[in-house]
Design brief:
The chain has 168 residues and is mainly beta. 8% of the residues lie in helices and 36% in strands. The longest helix has 7 residues, at 44-50. It is built from two helices and nine strands; from the N terminus they run E-E-E-H-E-E-E-E-E-E-H. The chain has helices at residues 44-50, 152-157; strands at 7-17, 23-26, 33-36, 58-63, 77-81, 102-106, 112-120, 124-128, 138-149. Bound molecules: zinc ion. Zinc ion (ZN) is lined by residues 157, 159, 161, 166, 168. Zinc ion is lined by residues 157, 159, 161, 166, 168.
Length: 168
């Protein structure tokens, strides 16, 4: 079996910053990455690089930032009135809102976003809503661990069921 559409692929990888070599994240044997190939849940170029591989095959490739999480955009850095972060009594939420904090927020349409606090002044909290990996060239190095055909139900749902998959 090879990595292709409608296959459930289990793999381990180490993700590093391609320019600096700094490790960003790494899967483990107990907690590998398991996904349904070809449904668009992950970076397309990642799939391109492992398509056709077999169990035991290794990979080591880079994806430039434009093809991964994009460039950092100045439009994603916004100033929010400090009062938005006040509690009912009008006291600023300094426990959770401080420089460097990652804060879960939602936009006008109810989409969940995470922002990183860049600065706090009396008037504004400046937040960066860029993806944490925006502007970063990625390097993936790893090995294909398992390949199996997806069940019809998994194909219908567009995701993997069972261990490491959706539990429902
Ligand atoms: Zn499902």
């Amino acid at each position: 079996m090879t990595v292709e559409a409608n296959m459930v692929v289990t793999l381990n990888y180490k993700l590093s910053n391609h320019k600096t070599g700094e490790k960003i994240e790494e899967t483990t044997a107990e907690n590998p990455m398991v996904f349904l190939f070809g449904v668009g849940g992950i970076i397309p170029e990642f799939e391109d690089n492992i398509q056709g591989k077999k169990v035991g095959d290794t990979f080591d490739f880079a994806i430039v930032s434009e093809s991964a999480y994009g460039e950092k955009s100045a439009e994603q850095i916004v100033k929010i009135p400090t009062s938005v972060f006040n509690d009912e009594s009008g006291k600023f939420n300094e426990e959770h809102i401080f420089v460097g904090a990652m804060v879960p927020m939602s936009d006008n349409e109810g989409n969940h976003l995470r922002g990183t606090v860049l600065a706090v002044t009396d008037e504004h909290v400046e937040m960066d809503f860029n993806h944490p990996l925006a502007g970063t060239d990625l390097n993936f190095k790893g090995e294909i661990v398992e390949i199996r055909p997806a069940t019809q139900e998994e194909i219908d749902h567009g995701h993997v069921h069972g261990l490491h998959g959706h539990q429902h």
